Amino acid sequence: MSDQPASASAPVQPDEQEAAVQRSFRELGLDSWLEDALRSLSIKQPSEIQQACIPRILAGKDVIGSATTGSGKTAAFALPILQKLAEDPFGIFALVITPTRELAFQIAEQFRVLGAGVNLKQSVVVGGLDMMTQALELSRRPHVIVATPGRLVDHIKSSTDAVNLKRLKFLVLDEADRLLDETFADDLAVILDQLPKKRQTLLVSATMTDEIKELNFSAQEDRKPFVYECNARFDTVEKLDQRYVFISSTVRDAYLAHLIRTSFESKTMIIFTGKCRTAERLRIMLRELGLRSTALHAQMSQADRLGSLAKFKGGIVPILIATDVGSRGLDIPTVQVVLNYELPADATDYIHRVGRTARAGRGGQSVALVTQHDINVLLNIETKTGRKMEELPVTENDVLEILNEVALAQRVANMHLTDNDFGSRRKINREKTGEIPAHKRGKRRKDDEHVSASGGSGHKKTKVKAA
Ligand code: AMP
């Protein structure tokens, strides 16, 4: 592959020749201390996106990179940033922006492990956690900040010298298609305003839009970004077995319970729902049915969200019930099954959801509960992914047998939500504890509270301009 296709209008796809020439991390230009750090993670050979992007980033190029879920995108940008940082260490060297809080922690963890050899100082700046602690960390000028947009803007607005990004060398937009959607436009504009024009900008996602691929951050022709696209734009992973179960919506919960008890018994799985309330309701219902699960949604406190994720990651509970706050980027290698309790309206969300399994070359399975009302959504997903889903056979009589038991569990769950005034109490608590800054009360939160996380084309987009 040559450097020529760096034109924004001609994305590079790995050709057969490049795929055949497997280069080592050293041959991509990385120092031996980074190779050692990778070895400690049992990572020996660069993935395709790493092969293509690491040399370009080291050479100073802006990069727009897209590759299927779980293909090593984080290391593709973290490794060259760390190498450049080691050559000339100062803070604040790099800013990584990501749409969800859990993803911010996950990215920071990869930086921590890979950057152990250079005494990396880093800071995670996300909503839902104490502003003062974060402000103190920021005042110590970490080398790398990993942030969600809303909270970073809160700090920027809190005082003129709260976050000094003027010497920054790298800006990374992880899940760039999501971040460049209109939801984040105002916050990103504030952040971009703080950054120097001379910097490298790196955009990564598993789903890139044509508009993003055509972005040019620089007015100079010779600074056109290197655009890398591995496989088609909306590919799901080859090793993912994608199924659906055709159901009537009135018995959705019974099918869910039946599948967990039979086809997916003892499997580690994520169940995706559209709403926080549904996630919470299912958690209680499954508990009543003797099935252990934990939840992840925006109506939980950040401490509970992190605790819940830790329990799931650590194998203490086998089922995570999540809204789309968990659909992007989360890397939990043990996940064997993704179950879409409801299909997301947007096919992009579907791709990210099922991308939580079959990661880094492993296999995995996804199942969608589909009613007669979801046929068009299903067809749309199949068109976008270019893959036909097969039906998973389920014996209806087996489901009918557990209807009464499930109905009882449903009643307990509904009563629990009503008794605890689900939703309103949480909001009051967040306001009391200062989790929602005063200037944002009454407004919709900008980071990671959205049920539909993708957003199609036609929205107002942020312009990522630099020099
Ligand atoms: P990501 O796409 O960045 O979320 O990475 C998905 C998973 O792949 C993570 O668990 C990484 O540690 C792992 N990974 C990253 N690079 C490689 C590689 N070159 N070979 C094997 N696994 C990798």
How would you characterize this protein structure?
Residues 458-467 have a biased composition (Basic residues). This is RNA helicase. GO terms for molecular function: ATP binding; hydrolase activity; RNA binding; RNA helicase activity. With 467 residues, the protein is of the alpha/beta class. It folds into two domains: 16-229, 3-Layer(aba) Sandwich (Rossmann fold), CATH 3.40.50.300; 240-419, Rossmann fold (3-Layer(aba) Sandwich). 38% of the residues lie in helices and 13% in strands. It has 18 helices and 14 strands. It has helices spanning 16-20, 32-40, 48-58, 73-87, 101-114, 131-139, 149-158, 176-179, 185-194, 210-213, 252-261, 276-288, 302-313, 347-354, 375-385, 396-401, 403-419, 424-432, and strands spanning 63-66, 94-97, 122-125, 144-147, 170-174, 200-205, 226-229, 240-246, 269-272, 293-296, 319-322, 337-340, 364-370, 390-391. A seven-stranded parallel sheet has the order 3-4-2-5-6-1-7, with helices on both faces. The chain is globular, with a radius of gyration of 22 Å. Residues 1-9 and 444-459 have low confidence and may be disordered. The structure holds adenosine monophosphate. Residues 41, 43, 45-47, 50, 70-75, 331, 333, 359-360 line the site of adenosine monophosphate.
